[in-house]
Amino acid sequence: MTVTKSRPKTAAKTAKPPAKGVRAAGKPAKVGAASKKAKASQSKASKAKAAGASQPKSAAKSKAAAKSDAKSGAKSGAKSGAKSGPAAPEPRAASKSQAPKEVLDFGGFPAGHVTRHEVTLCLSCIFSLFTKQLGLAPRTAYAEIRRYEPTVAELTAREPARPFFPAAGERNPRCPYCDAAKRWHAPLRVYRVEGGRATDAARRTLVRKLPTKDGRFQVHEEKHTSRQVFFEWLERLGQELDFETDAAWMPAAAREYLRRREPKTDWAEVFEGARQVRRSQRLEEGWERDGARLFLAPALYNDVLLVQYLVSRSHRHGGRTFEGRLTLRELARRMRHGGHLEAHGIESRDEFEILEQLVEHLTGGDAPARLHFIVDRRDLLDTAKEVYDRHAGD
Length: 394
Ligand SMILES: [Zn+2]
Known about the structure:
17 helices, six-stranded antiparallel beta sheet, 2 domains, 15% strand, three-stranded mixed beta sheet, elongated
């Protein structure tokens, strides 16, 4: 979703007044200008990358995205931006020739390791919270809004609570709590980067370059286990997939998992035009294409089946895979016949234990994993300044 900066000046009269004397509070003039500069667009190259790394909803869409990559990153970026989920940053405002490079560029990060989440903060709600409920003077409330650092949990909640509401794709969305118009809405974006060898260096470099003034970016770290991180990823994937169409979600799930597992391969290209995905009888590792058929080495294929099983089991007609709908017993039997259990040293005959051990191998189990969050507060600062400017003269 591209951020639109069109907030009509004439709106001032009808909007709610944060009252007089607020102007002295924030010294915001420079901030806004600088921040707008910083916001100007990414280069075309990074746009194209961003679109490529974004998570299409289905195989069909992914094809389209891959094709349009080169010419219109913006378009597919906009599509993926409407939803949260595995994605690269959306392209920002249209590029102007001298515009500096967008600082939040995840184009060089391995696919599947960065997800983006967007939520909208209603400034009208939070302003009345600060003034009416907490009894702050308007100018203090304004300063507090600029300092406000919401938690990652608040920002990424599946059902955001007031003053947050889900980022809507509508043209003229209204705050669901107070009905405030779009000019009161500040989008907040959270980028979640999985720590590890694949991302650490790139993340450190990126964070080092972020401007620190006014807390435009909040950086936060959480410790988890590999299993937790994997299931969080899987849950997001599940939210993105449309389980009605097997021909769409199954290859998409396979591709996203493989992206995550082997980020150096261009899996979008590997899957391009593939009508069938099968277990290879001759490969020991990797993949090969034979016309419209994509063959995966058994170890990859079996893990893909497991991912499909896990991601679909909580949905209607769950437990579906390239091998059809599987009960846990059937899954375990297939894994045994495919040599997958032996390969992982799993000897148990109990299907629940087998699943548990398969999941340990698939996810990395209790191995420590770090999650890094970068919160983009630039729109919060800008919107707060605009609201303030509009009402300072009232
Ligand atoms: Zn509101």
